Automatic annotation (TrEMBL):
Domain ABC transporter: 2-255
Entry keywords, A to Z: ATP-binding, Nucleotide-binding, Transport
Protein name: ABC transporter
Signal sequence bounds: none
One GO MF term: ATP binding
Organism of origin: Synechococcus lacustris str. Tous
Amino acid sequence: MINAEELSKTYRISEKQPGFAGTLRHLVQRKHREITAVNKISFCIEPGEIVGFLGPNGAGKTTTLKMLTGLIHPTSGKLSVAGHKPWQRKARFLGQITLVMGNRQQLLWDLPALDSLKVNAAVYGIPEKEAQRRINELAEMLELGEELLRPLRKLSLGQRMKTELLAALLHQPAVLFLDEPTLGLDVNAQVRVREFLADYNKRTGATMLLTSHYMGDITTLCPRVLLIHQGELFHDGSLSELTQKLAPCSQVRMELSKIHSIEDFRGYGDIHSLEGHQVQLLIPRAELSERVAALLKRFEVVDLEVSAPPIEELIGGLFRHRDKL
Ligand SMILES: Nc1ncnc2c1ncn2[C@@H]1O[C@H](COP(=O)(O)OP(=O)(O)OP(=O)(O)O)[C@@H](O)[C@H]1O
């Protein structure tokens, strides 16, 4: 459904020295600088997949989404979305995609959502009866009722996001680009939007590419993630593979029946902390089962917990230490 090969985007920006002299110099001799926002990224997304698109601020996510939706032209590389070259912005292509941005709204602030929805339906050439059927179906899935009759400005943020989703899906797009769809929503509203997206994907088989700073969105919805940093693709695979790539060790926390000294744990892993009956060790994943079995044999263990460091921490660490990788 989406095929990107060595996709790149370089922006050319003009540079001006500060002050009046700089302005004059800029008028006669313009200087330019190039910023490579996306650098030869390649990936392929199959119909029906939900893929998370991660990266820190300025990584190149929005630039990629803009290329995928045809808002900007790639500088180089090959790109096909639903069988089309997005930048041609053909009506048949636009009828197959939708872009939902958590920080932008397409519905009119002072009008009831239902009025805007009817206008949108007419723009897409959807017959009135069919439009009403689709609105009813989506409203039921999104648990929206009389909210559609109230002016948008009188709705809560969560209700507004749900009406925006309804509007974005009215033309039954095959590919959904979702840029921070749960931005600013409270935890309950986030969960409802996630449940809706999962349900919609199951019912319609729509393909989804989703960016979010909330890891909950990614862990619940996306079996596969693309991680982009400084314009380059760092990871394409599952979240657990990403965790393994970023954290080669597991964290083992044990509560013991007796107090032990640091020396007792030598050879089992790196000691993260030792406090009273509690000890935390970092053990390489490849040797985890063998070492845990040895620990259980050697110590009287009251409680045991094996975990990976939280994914947010790992990704945050990656972004801070990228140059060292
Ligand atoms: N129109 C533009 N002109 C010049 N540079 C741009 C333009 N748009 C983006 N950039 C630069 O390209 C790089 C990638 O920006 P982009 O907006 O794609 O990142 P992002 O991953 O979406 O970040 P965020 O999470 O903050 O939205 C940044 O260095 C940004 O400053």
